[in-house]
Amino acid sequence: MSGGAKKRGSGKARPNPHRGEVALTLDDKVHVLRLSLGALARLEARLGADSLTDLVARFESGTFRAADLVALLEAGGAPAGKVATATVEGGPLEAARVAARLLRLTFAGVHPE
User: Fold this and answer.
1) What is the pLDDT of residue 113?
2) CA 82/CA 78 separation, integer angstroms
3) Where is this region: Disordered (predicted)?
4) Residue 80 CB: number of other CB atoms within 10 A?
5) 28 burial type by CB count under 10 A (0-12 exposed, 13-18 middle, 19+ buried)
6) Residue 30: helix, strand or coil by DSSP?
7) What pLDDT does residue 7 have?
8) Is the CB of residue 84 less than 8 Å from the CB of residue 111?
9) Where are the domains of the chain?
10) What confidence score (pLDDT) does residue 12 get?
């Protein structure tokens, strides 16, 4: 797969920020995450958000719960059910940073760090 990320969960994945992708390492395995419109719609429903603006505001204001963080990472493509039980490289704070970057790249366009 030239020019983009390698297969999700391959352990050697490289996210492409120009596509809104970020990397999350769970149990020493790298997963490339990206939010699609469908994933955002399912996330809204799962978290009971009234709108996308409400959803983003929840994370920007820091009023999200751990369950919200898990739901966001799973919506991005992390293995369902694994985020809550896996060892996240960098711990919970890194998981929150990855989630924040995922939202930022999804809604703000390309501003890779």
Assistant:
1) 54
2) 8
3) 1-20
4) 10
5) exposed
6) strand
7) 45
8) no
9) 17-107
10) 60
Can you list the residues of the chain whose pLDDT is less than 70? 1-12, 109-113
Closest CA to 43 of 64, 14, 18, 20: 64
Strand, coil or helix: what is 77?
A: coil
How far apart CA 31 and CA 14 sit, in angstroms, is: 9
Neighbours of 94 (CB within 10 A): 13
Residue with tokens 């955002």: 40
The type of residue at 67 is A
Reported for 7-15, long-range contacts at CB under 8 A and 24+ positions apart, including other chains, are 8/32, 8/77, 9/79
- Give the three-class secondary structure for 20: coil
pTM of the model: 0.82
Which is nearest to 68 in space by CA: 58, 78, 81, 57? 58
Token duo for residue 84: 């809550």
Could you tell me the sign of the dihedral formed by the alpha carbons of 64, 68, 72, 73, in that order?
Answer: positive
